[in-house]
Amino acid sequence: MNLVTHHIAGLVFRTEFNAWFSRFGQIRYLQFRSDDRLVPDVRHRIVKIGDNTLTLPSPMGEERSWLNDSAHESRVLDGPILRSSVVRDWLKSYWDRSDQVEIWLHENQVILRDFARREFFQFYTERLGGYDEERRGYFPEYYVAANFRQMFSSFLPYFSAIQLHSSGVIRNGRAALFLAPDGGGKTTVLGHSTDDLILSDDQIILRKQGDVVVAYATPLGTITSGACQSNLGALFVLQSAPVFELSPLSILDPFVKTICTRK
Predict the structure, then answer these.
(1) What are the residue ranges spanned by the domains of the chain?
(2) Which of 58, 137, 148, 254 is most buried by a 10 A CB count?
(3) Torsions phi, psi of 128, nearest 5?
(4) Ordered per-residue pLDDT tens for the chain, 263 residues
(5) pTM of the model
């Protein structure tokens, strides 16, 4: 198994995988790499299951009944992924503690979240191949990319933290976060901030530490200045407009101390 360790928001995330993910070699991920000898706060395991190992019959009897009661999307109990002995053995290990795990079943993919041990497992088969992305060299990560955010966010509440869909910068010792839907300008607004540290253009972690909320950079976007952090200063909700402008807001809450404008 390949092994990488990332240090994000003061937490150690360890990821094991048996098929290389090129994104882990990208600069923004390398900026958050940490010592593999550190004790992880959260563990991830991503396992590609070869088609030649799909040899078991579909679950039957007590096993099928348990999966039907315990798993989301149990209508796919006859899917290829459940013919893997590796996957079935992992699932059986949770029979006596199903209240501590969340199981998602898909035809060619299984996701497990073990909340007691803060472990995220993802199994997927080679049968997910065949798209243009595979021929361009993105296989296998194209098919699990949608779960990367879940990997890093699933257990954050255990550490008084959440992952926020936003962009953000650090200015004058405070973090300014910009919220908008996809295509709403989160990345565009960063182009108007040339001298500030960039937390991310897509995903930022907020973590309560003592009496303050700290905003942390993540590699879960396309732009970041690396592992930086700052106390949260303000949140901005972006609205599409023909020109870029920041307007002062009324101070309606004690949380809002100052508003910086820039035109």
Answers:
(1) 2-158, 160-237
(2) 148
(3) -75, -5
(4) 889 999 999 999 999 988 777 778 889 999 999 999 999 999 999 898 988 999 999 999 999 999 999 998 777 899 899 999 999 999 999 998 888 899 999 888 899 999 999 999 999 887 664 444 444 544 555 555 667 788 889 999 999 999 999 999 999 899 999 998 888 888 888 887 778 899 999 999 999 999 999 999 999 988 999 999 999 999 988 887 777 676 665 655 444 443 333 33
(5) 0.83
Contact 200, 193 (CB under 8 A): no
Contact 212, 231 (CB under 8 A): yes
Partners of 28 in the beta sheet?
Answer: none
Buried b (16+ CB within 10 A) or exposed e, 105-115: beebbbbbbbe
Task: Decide which of 3.30.2010.10, 3.30.70.20, 3.40.50.300, 3.10.560.10 is the CATH code for 160-237.
Answer: 3.40.50.300
